[in-house]
Every structure is written in structure tokens, then in C-alpha cells.
């Protein structure tokens, strides 16, 4: 187990390294000089040149990277070009939106998908199964931003129950904060839930065909217990794997929904940073998000061991 | 809560709310882009000007809502020869930090703008200044190297704002000025909040207590926000396709006005066949601008014939100068040696959807005279790097491109052979040089008219249309600018009509 942890730890560091190098190179290879974008079509060529120098963009790429990585190791991700604030501080300031949004979407996804998947599996080739499958197909097909707009039209414009967007912050109270995140979390969670329904259904169906399930049934174990104890527990591994991957997708999906709902989250921070070629900010956010996803996968790995005592890493 | 007292209180509250019915005092406006920083002396970004200029920080001179230059922080000025200007400052003007505005502050701000050490994006606006002298706290004199007709205009631009010397360090995140509103809060990525400046130097203004600027990039989300009542007005960023529905909705006022944003189709004058003025004129003749305006802008906006916008006092209506005429276009192409037309690539950036729509219509129109246009959509960063061609780029990489030029008084671009059109006309350059040294209004106007006719003749680009000002406000909101002669979201005179 310890060796496994060490191996995963090394993979974690290596992933972060590759991601940071990749981001560093890709952003600089893209046409579109940050100084030029900041100045737009107005500023004079001299002003652009001055800005380039001030931003350190005229130094060799490797030197810029070593400089950046060295400071990043101490938690200093540099200073955002557009906001003139430390990148770390900007990232931290967006977490109170993105973390609850992702968690709410994940909770929505799990609460909806796992029971529905189980239900569909037990109703295999019956009406309930087909209806669930059609619904999940629909959930996969609907683009999240469009669903977001539909939800706004219904709940904000038509019914006037919820805000059409924006986030007043948690200072307004827990309820107000959660209300602002409700619609985007649903829009974000639907696609993932639809995927997870299918994963749960097929995992449970697989397990239901196994010998031990037939044995349990033959022994006269009640059906509830067969599904709940024997089948579901063993089906959890593929389900957790898919769910773990989906957390990464949720973070990515939040970019779109934060834009539709005008939420000041990490996704919009990244989007704005890319549009403005705010290099320190793009690098910081990307490495942070990559780190989070790698960490989640690491935790999913650990969860396997807990779910199935047979899995021992040696 | 069920006690009779609380019920009575609720009832009283309701009654007061109905009887009082005072006009609201808060305002929430939407803009598309968050400013990349609030320092007008370091960024030319229009998103910064929209929020800060005239609202938080002001200049000696102001471009008013009709496009006229009016005295502002300077009460008046005097010049005998167009070379020495003396400004008499309005007395009792206070900065947001409580200190009184003095002539020394003006000297400091303008000298800092001229200083090569600073990041001012438009130092050239102050190049004609030779010396600034402070006579007393309320009198300041500018001596120019030679008369400059744009001097007052340049002092009204966003980069010429006056701020207190002691606040120079915080301009980027917490600008201090003399404007009607004080910056209260900037929640990055979400909103900027202003509160009323109680010491504003214009009596009775502003009438709004609190302004919230929200950054909503998606127009559909902005429209939903308007309809849900979460935002009161959308100032910039909506296209004609978004406001058509709202025009029929009785809850809103749609403002359609003029701007200085000239939408053109630039041609790379260095590249064949666009080196030939006959080809360029042929392309202009082949484009039905009326149809373009109808199709791309739902008929909103105005057709242009030159690069001088309708808000400019020297505007001449040349919309019909090179009229839509397919036969003529074909004849000119044949004369130039292209009887069967040619292939062209039109580069547009989806960052500005109107350019893509305009391009599609034009590509179709040009195909009728044999010019086969392939549209290539490129990202804005690429457009700036390759088409607009700033160093290290040396040759613009494009045939045709469409973009709006929002700056007012930008005819100088055509006198600059290095500009991305690569239009090199000694005659126009000479005319422009003269216009920059002529202070007499009549003579200068004559030069501007000559320049515009020259541009029609040479057709270095196709002048398409003026992008309309499109803003939507909830009924009852009054005082917004109808036209946009300056890139400012000026809210100084905005107020809510009293409700009945």
C-alpha cells in the first residue's frame, strides 16, 4: 500500500509537471501576443513594446518557465496581468462558487443517477428500463448551456422564483447562496447524471449475471438483499470510476454554465484569462484544476481498496 | 410573527410602500466585458472607458452627448493664436478623497501621460505640448509647439483624465477622480459597484445612489436578466438580433443611436489584385450596402461612404458615392485584367458576430461579379497578430477582412502607409498633414471634405456602415445617451422617472 501511494504520488507530480510545461508552451505558441491583446487596436507599437518588456515576455521561454515553476513551488503563482492581483488569491476567491457548484451538481448527479440506474437494471427490458434509457439519452443530447437558458426562462423570467444569474455571495446567507447555484448545478448535473445512469445500469446488469448472484437467489436470499448487498456493492467499482472521471468533466462544464449564469467562478476566471492572454492566470488556474483532477483520481483509487477488500496493491 | 403588532407593522410597511412609491434610487446595468483594469492612463480598452470615463474620472474638457466639446473641469479657456491655451479651472471641485482639485494636479496628470516611463497607450496625443505652467491654483497654461486643432479633443479623451497625485498608485484597481460616482467595490469577475458622490461639482447630480455594473458576456443571458428584472439596462454588447424582440415589449425602451464605430471591409492594398484602384472600386460597386445593412444589422445603423462618422462635424454624406452597380463592377474588373474575376479569402473573427454575418452577405454579392470569396474565421488574437499585423509581424496576412473601427477622428489611419490597409497615397497624406496644422474651422472642414472625396476615389477599403448604438433600458429609466460620440457609459444624468 505504501509503495502504491508513493507511485501515485510520483505520478501526481509528473502529471503536474507535464501539464504546466504544456500550458506554458501552448499558450506562447498560439498567435496573439498578450501585450497586443491588452492594448487592442488602439495602443501604439511603442506602448505594446513597453508592455511586453514590463511583462517579461521578451525573455527566453525556458528562463520564464524555470522562474515561474520555482515560485509556484512556494505557492506563488505570479500576478495576474489583467487584475494586478496574486493569482493564488484570485483562484481562492473563486472557490466559494465553483466548489459548491460542482458538489451540488455531483450530489444531484449521484442522487438521480444511481437509483435510476439500479431501477433500470432491475426492470431490464421492461417499460421502466426503456423510459429511463430514453430519458438518459435525452440528458446526454441536450447541451448544458441550452438547458441552462431554458431553466432561466422558466424559473426566472416566467415564474420569477430565482435569479437569472449572478452571485451575491455567501454574505447574503446560506439559502441565498444555494439558490443562486441551484439552476446551474442542475443544468450541469443533468448530462453527467445521464451518463452515470447508463454506467450504473450496465454495471448492475453485469453483476446480476454472475454466479454468486444466482447462488444467492437459489439460496432464497430476498431480492432486496440480493440487489442491495450482493449486486450493488460489487457494481460500485465501475460506478465510482465513472463518477470520479465525471468530477473532472463537471469542473470543465462549469466554465460554460458559469458563463450562462454570470457566476464569478473558476471557469469564468479561466475563460476571461484565456481571452485576455493573461498568462500567469491561465497557467495558475490550469495547473490548479489539473492538480485537483489528479487528486480526485487518486482518491478514487483509494476508494477501490475500501470497496473491495480483494483489491490490494502490491 | 402572528402578533397583531407585527401584522400592523407589515400593513403599515405595505401602505408606505404604495403611498410613498418613491422612484428607485439604485441601478443595475449590464456590460459584456469586464474591464481589464481601471486605469485609463494605462489601457486603451473600451471596457475600461465604458465604466470609468465620465463616471469616476473626468477631464478638463468633455465630449458631451451630442459630440460637442464642452468645458468641464475647466470652466473656460482662452487662446489668442491656437498655440497658447490658458484654462481657468472650475472652483470648488473635489476629488473623491476630499481634497480640492488644483492646477498642479492637471499639470501632474498630463505630464505623467506624456512621460515615456509610464504605460500610457497614447502619448502621441500630447506630443504637441511644449510646456505646461501653473499660474495659480485655478489657472494653467499649455504652450504648444505649433497650433494643433485636435488639442482640445485630446484633452477630452479617456487618457487625459485628472486624478490626484497621491492616488497614482491605485489607479488600476481603485481609481480616484472628480466624477459623479465613487468606486465602492470591484468584485472581480462579477461586478463593479459605484456609490453617489455627494460632493459632485454639478448641482443636483447624480440622481442615482448606487450603480452596479454586471459583466454578462452571453447576450441571451443578458436578455433573460432584463426580462427577469435582475438588470435595469444593457448598455453595450447587444446586437440587432437581440433587441428586435425587445422593441415590441412595452416594458423596455430600445435606444438606437449613432456611434463613431465605422464598419469597413479592409483590403490588403499591398496584395494583388487590390493594388489596383479599379479592382477596389469594382469591389465597392459590387456590394449592395443597403442589403448588407438589412441582412446583417436588421436595417439598424447608417450606410457609410467614407471613414468619417455621422457624429463628426465634418461628416459628408457620401453613402451614394460608389453606388451598387454590378455592370460597372464587371467593367472595371475587365479593365483591370480580371474579366473572369478572382479568388479571395475573407478573414473575420467570430468575436464580433456582426463581422461574420456581414462577410457572408458580401461573399454572396461578390460572387455575382465573379469574385469567389472563401470565408475564414479566425480567433481575435490571431486577427490582431496576423491581419492587424503589429510587430513582430511585418506584412499583413490577408486579402479581405471586416471590422469596426470605433475610435472617433481616426482618418489619420489612412494617412499612415504602415497601417494594416497598407494604403499609401501621398496626396491624402499631404491633405491630412495640412488638416493637422489648420486651426481655422472652415479651412479644416474643406480639407476633411477633400480627404473624404479622395478616399471614395481611391477606395482603399469598402466603407460599409456605421454600427448603431444599441442599448436597452427598462421603461422609466431616463437620461441615457442616445448617441455614443465617446466610448463612455456616462451615467451622470441618469435617473428613474417618478412612478405613479
Could you explain how this protein is built, in words?
The complex is a heterodimer of chains A (314) and B (500). Chain A is an all-alpha fold and 314 residues long. Chain A is 77% helix and 0% strand. The longest helix of chain A has 38 residues, at 223-260. Mean pLDDT of chain B is 91; it is low at 14-21. Chain B is globular and about 70 Å long. Chain B has helices at 4-20, 46-52, 103-114, 151-156, 219-228, 240-247, 277-286, 289-297, 326-335, 353-367, 380-387, 426-435, 441-458, and strands at 26-31, 61-63, 69-71, 74-79, 84-89, 129-136, 139-144, 181-187, 191-196, 210-215, 233-234, 252-257, 262-267, 302-303, 342-348, 371-377, 400-405, 461-466, 469-474, 477-478, 495-496. The longest helix of chain B has 18 residues, at 441-458. In chain B, helix 7 packs antiparallel against helix 9 (326-335) and helix 12 (426-435) runs antiparallel to helix 13. By secondary structure, chain B is an alpha+beta fold. The interface between A and B is large, with 55 and 46 residues.
Q: The biggest beta sheet of chain A, please?
A: none
Share of residues in strands of chain B: 15-25%
What is the typical, i.e. mean, pLDDT of chain B? 91
Largest interface by Cβ-Cβ < 8 Å: A-B, 55 and 46 residues
Mean residue pLDDT of chain A: 81
Question: Regions of chain A with pLDDT < 50 over 5+ consecutive residues?
Answer: none
Shape of chain A: globular
Tell me the strand percentage band of chain A: under 5%
Low-confidence stretches of chain B: 14-21
| Multimeric organization | heterodimer
Summed up, the helix count of chain B is: 13
The gist of it:
The complex is a heterodimer of chains A (314) and B (500). Chain A has 314 residues and is mostly helical.
List keywords for this structure.
heterodimer; A: 314 residues; mainly alpha; 12 helices; 77% helix; 0% strand; B: 500 residues; alpha+beta; 7-stranded mixed sheet; 6-stranded mixed sheet; 13 helices; 28% helix; 22% strand; globular
